[in-house]
Amino acid sequence: MKKTKVLVSMPESLKAKLDALRVQGYTASGFIRAVLERELKQTTSGQKGR
After folding, report:
1. Closest listed residue to residue 28, CA positions, set 1, 2, 5
2. Within 13 A of 15's CA, how many CA atoms are on the CB side?
3. Confidence at residue 1, expressed as pLDDT on a 0 to 100 scale
4. What residues have CB less than 8 Å from 38, skipping those under 6 apart?
5. Distance between CA atoms of 26 and 17, rounded to whole angstroms?
6. Residue of 5, 46, 1 lying closest to 29 (CA atoms)
7. Which of 18, 29, 36, 48 has the most crowded Cβ, counting Cβ within 10 A?
8. What is the spatial distance between Cα 12 and Cα 31, in angstroms, rounded to a whole number?
9. Residue 42 phi/psi, 5° resolution?
């Protein structure tokens, strides 16, 4: 699968929360990717997203 980069702007408070997840072993990109995959899977399976 070919990957592409996406630039996301967010408030500093949200970025700080992502940075805090690093202590638990998450990366910001990995966390965001997992959330997007989960949300898009729900959307395509007939459930409403946020």
Report:
1. 5
2. 5
3. 86
4. none
5. 11
6. 5
7. 18
8. 17
9. -65, -40
Instruction: Report which DSSP code applies to 9.
Output: -
User: Cα–Cα distance between 40 and 22 in angstroms, integer?
Assistant: 24
Convert the pLDDT of each residue in 1-50 to its tens digit.
Answer: 898 999 999 999 999 999 999 999 999 999 999 999 999 998 777 655 55
Q: What's the confidence (pLDDT) of residue 16?
A: 94
Per-residue pLDDT, 42: 87
Alpha carbons within 13 A on the beta-carbon side of 49: 11
Half-sphere exposure of 45 (CA within 13 A, CB side): 7
**Rounded to whole angstroms, how far apart are CA atoms 14 and 10?**
6
